[in-house]
Amino acid sequence: MTLLSDRFIAWMEAHDADSPATPAATVVALRDAAGGPEVLMVQRNAKGTFASNWVFPGGKVDPEDFHGGTDILAASRRAATREAVEEADLVVDEALLIPFSHWMPPTVVPRRFATWFYLAPAPVGVDGDVTIDGGEIVDHLWVTPTDALERHRRGDVELVPPTWITLTHLAGFATVDEALTQIAGREPPFYLTRMVPGDTPTVMWHHDVAYESGDLDTPGTRHRLTMTPGAWNFEEPAS
To answer: What is the CATH code of the structural domain delimited by 2-192?
Structure first.
């Protein structure tokens, strides 16, 4: 899975330092439940980055996560497990982390975090009670991806596109083992995001016919998220 690291380094080397992206990592922890796999989500406070949004436990890669080396992918794995403990008191086995996706935000975003998403089984015996600090993290829940998406549709929770799309991709799995097996067998997608201004916010990624031009009406392949309030619509190329 070195491509994740290679793509990040290539991006940083190909762009100037006017809008550097900070490496970050997050853990999508899964557990089986009667209604299907549930994910752990936490709500950030009303200040700072991702204010009031519901996200997966995670944060930036710290210098200490490199253990004196230069391997950004290894450091991101350590950051993911460290943040899971710091934000939710959830101990995730680093050896069980499965690369899920890698997100690079658009250059227009003031604070940019290039984030590795890792899938992992929740520790055996977790009963839903996790510890949050009530400061940076103000709430948490275990929820099926489908339920989380429905809450967002109703306006009960706020989500950012990477979280929403991750939940969408996880909604079809019947068990944690099924999700882990299928995700482990594919190349993690790299989302290099472009934002298109307009009355309805739209973000798109490579392989969208309008990725370079920004002309959303151009006929052709779609790889975009149209964020109409209450009716977000994700289109992606056929696999």
So the answer is: 3.90.79.10
